[in-house]
Amino acid sequence: MLRLPTVMRQMRPVCRALAPHLTRAYAKDVKFGADARAMMLKGVDLLADAVAVTMGPKGRTVIIEQSWGSPKVTKDGVTVAKAIDLKCKYQNIGAKLVQDVANNTNEEAGDGTTTATVLARAIAKEGFDTISKGANPVRSPLCHDPTTKPSYFGALRLKETPAHW
């Protein structure tokens, strides 16, 4: 683990010099390799497990504790995803990535956030596994066209249905 310096600017009072004063604070932890991927994937799994129970017509409801008022009962995947904030900052990074997937799906389509979250977990697991085996993360086929490799989606099968009227 590396600690990198971050530079924070502080303005001095107007009565002194107007030039900003630089203060160095060592606040950034940087992790590389398998440890970082494992912790991020744990966060992805925690969020996806909480959201996955709401999937489909027989999906279950989730109760979300709120700081004020009564608890919120919902079956909406994006609402569950937004409510999750993990204590470990590395796990929280993975969870935030999947939260962005749910938010973007909600904005673009308005529905399907639970499915998008479960697919994001499957893609993250397969991608991290491929990288752990020594593949180049930039030239991964998953990054270019995930539909060319249906094994990435596990049990999900992509089917086309002809529209004959």
Task: Write structural notes for this entry.
The protein has a two-stranded antiparallel ribbon with strand order 1-2. Helix content is 43%, strand content 15%. A hairpin with a 7-residue loop joins strand 3 (62-64) and strand 4 (72-74). By secondary structure, the protein is an alpha+beta fold. The protein has a domain at 32-134: Orthogonal Bundle (GROEL, domain 1). It is globular, with a radius of gyration of 21 Å. The longest helix is centred in the N-terminal third of the chain and has 20 residues, at 33-52. It is built from 5 helices and 4 strands, in the order E-E-H-E-E-H-H-H-H. It has helices at 33-52, 77-83, 89-108, 113-132, 141-144, and strands spanning 2-10, 21-30, 62-64, 72-74.
Mean pLDDT: 78
**What portion of residues is helical?**
40-55%
Q: What is the total tally of β strands?
A: 4
CATH hierarchy class name of one domain: Mainly Alpha
> How would you classify the helix and strand content by structural class?
alpha+beta
Q: What is the CATH-assigned architecture of one domain?
A: Orthogonal Bundle
Radius of gyration: 21 Å
- CATH homology superfamily name of one domain: GroEL-like equatorial domain
